[in-house]
Amino acid sequence: MDDYFADIPRVLARRALKKLGLPASIDVGILATVIKKLRAQIESDLGITVTDAVLATTHLEAIYEDDVEDICENAGFQHVTPKRAYRPMIYETGAAYGGYGFGWCKHWQNDTQCQKEIVELPAISILGVHYSETALTSTLAYIQTPVGPWEGYGHRVENFTLGSNSKTRYKREDEYWNDVKGAILKRMIETPSLRKPEMIIVTGDMASDDDFQSVLKDGVEEHLGWLPPIYSGCAAVAAAKGAAELRRRGKAPWSK
């Protein structure tokens, strides 16, 4: 309840900005500008009009549910909450899990049958690693379906100083890769009681980098004593594929 009242000034400020025709926040305006460009490129390349979409986001504490909805609104399309998602937020780890083909019911057009299949799906412990030019994140998540990942705050590491562009800040490249390995393994080392990963899901536009792949494989195998299966073949688009499939399967009845 204290969090609710503490958040009221932020909510009122957002509403005031929107009434003036402005983005709900500076961050919303920046992210909406990026998504507008992506939307324009998609529409141009595919010859379609994007009127609504499921938006997958990184799991950052600073991103709220209303941010996601306002970003889409400002970018000119409607945000869709997919079926069986009880909150608007669809996180990258879950979407990528679906993008790699996991967590789906086969008979999705039959809600009753689909729900029976979902109950039978295993809950998998995932090490999700994102590597791009500007960021390195890792998370230990428990996932049964793309809409239901559980990755508590103590399970995640978000580092915006270890993206591939940061290599130039290091005198020696091996020092950089040592820090990358440390960030990937951080939660497993600091909290050994957490369930060990049964699968590694990789996302990000730099995930195919040979050095990164070696550091990931060698670091995890060295720490665990074995190497779980790694899925990285469509790292740059895995989350987008999962989000698109969620949209194809329909929206939640309460989605706006």
Blueprint of the fold:
Layout: H1 2-19, H2 26-46, E1 52-53, E2 56-57, H3 65-75, E3 78-79, E4 90-91, H4 92-99, H5 111-120, E5 124-131, E6 136-143, E7 156-159, H6 173-190, E8 199-203, H7 210-224, E9 230-231, H8 238-248
Parallel strand pairs: 1-3, 2-4, 5-8, 8-9
Antiparallel strand pairs: 5-6, 6-7
Describe the model.
Helix content is 44%, strand content 14%. It folds into 2 domains: 2-80, no CATH class; 91-238, ATPase, nucleotide binding domain (Nucleotidyltransferase, domain 5, 2-Layer Sandwich), CATH 3.30.420.40. The longest helix has 21 residues, at 26-46. It contains 8 helices and 9 strands. Helix 7 (210-224) links the parallel strand 8 and strand 9. Helix 4 packs across helix 8 (238-248). With 256 residues, it is an alpha/beta fold. The strands form 3 sheets. The protein has a 5-stranded mixed beta sheet, with helices on both faces. Strands 1-3 form a two-stranded parallel sheet. The protein has helices at 2-19, 26-46, 65-75, 92-99, 111-120, 173-190, 210-224, 238-248; strands at residues 52-53, 56-57, 78-79, 90-91, 124-131, 136-143, 156-159, 199-203, 230-231.
